[in-house]
Structure of Glutamate--cysteine ligase:
Amino acid sequence: MARDTTDTQPIEGIDELVGYLADGNKPREKWRIGTEHEKFPFYVDGNAPVPYGGERGIRAILEGMQEKLGWDPIMDAGRIIGLVEPTGQGAISLEPGGQFELSGAPLESIHQTCREGNAHLAQVREIAEPMGIRFLGLGGSPKWSLADTPKMPKSRYEIMTRYMPKVGTKGLDMMYRTCTIQVNLDFESETDMRRKMQVSLKLQPLSTALFANSPFTESRPNGLQSWRGDIWRDTDNQRSGMLELCFSPDFGFADYVEWALDVPMYFVIRDGHYHDMTRYTFRQFMAGAARNEVPDGLPTMGDWANHLSTLFPDVRLKRFLEMRGADGGPWRRICALPAFWVGLLYDEQALDAAETLTASWTYEEALAMRNAVPELGIAAPFRNATLRDVARDVLAISRTGLKNRARKNRDGYDETSFLNTLDEVVARGTTSAEEMLSAYHTRWGGSIEPVFMEYAY
């Protein structure tokens, strides 16, 4: 979320909060694809992290991008922390450790997503390369310690940094040392949302396995294929995870609201100032707990929208669904992630097939997969097989869905080719992380420095 919301409409009751989510219902012809991807900036000279300030820092990149694109700056306490396209068609934002994120426009096809990604990477390279800066497409920072990693001057991150060590052991690693690719997808009704939520939650561990791309920490193998996936196992389990409540056959908007109400808040914004609210749940806030502590201390719809953006389940419900399981990766993965999920969820035949495939999967089985994947990747066991076997079936369903969509580019090709990089993972039986580990032990000579050349944008 590039810019926090400041909608001042007061909240009268819980029904309004449910209605806020239900307002996301869209007819199929208005369904869109919103892709987000993060990458680590680094100085080519020494493969060092890039700080916020200075003539060759993150701020200078943002200012250069602003001049080039004409986008509006996003400011926090007088400092530029992002850019937004004036009509809301995309944004550039910063993650806590300087990870550079494009939140893409809502688009109609994966072809458009790839063109958008290409254009963004070309634009940011044009600004950054004269500064000696490139970008790394991995799921986890491979070299820098937390102490080495710069901190971005963003008020909500200051609150989160103080809070994370109180609720888990790996929250600061999540904030400062991980990158992801996400896709945001629409639903047409509560029933459609439920079906998509349940299918995508069950298959999120498979997404983590297929995109596993973070095997190094502080210049050494970390024993994992997706360090990022492992980090999410103990970041803040009150607001993250697989959400067993979503597996209920009658799960709906109201159930998600009831869960969200009892998750501690991070902040509210009043007159541009961020107030720490981590000692209150949103339900307590609605009951007047902060009435005497925060100016205008009663909740608004903007507060609710911001609160929803600080919840981190594997699939996040807002006025759309966010697929959150994948590590960041190279350019081909930026296109493959939305293709994978669009193929499964945006075609009725494919969604029926995915739902049938996963119908008998229990929460306990899905959680076991989630716990096994960071170490084992597609070799993680499932029933009498492995996730590699499951992946064959799921990719076939996704390919059918993309064929049925029949969204073709100017050369007449549909969207199925964007799955090829995932087909290669299954055919090889090895993830990107395993390929990197093999290189580390052979041609890289026990050094992770070559990753900055081979996985750079």
User: Anything to note?
Assistant: The two ends are 23 Å apart (CA to CA).
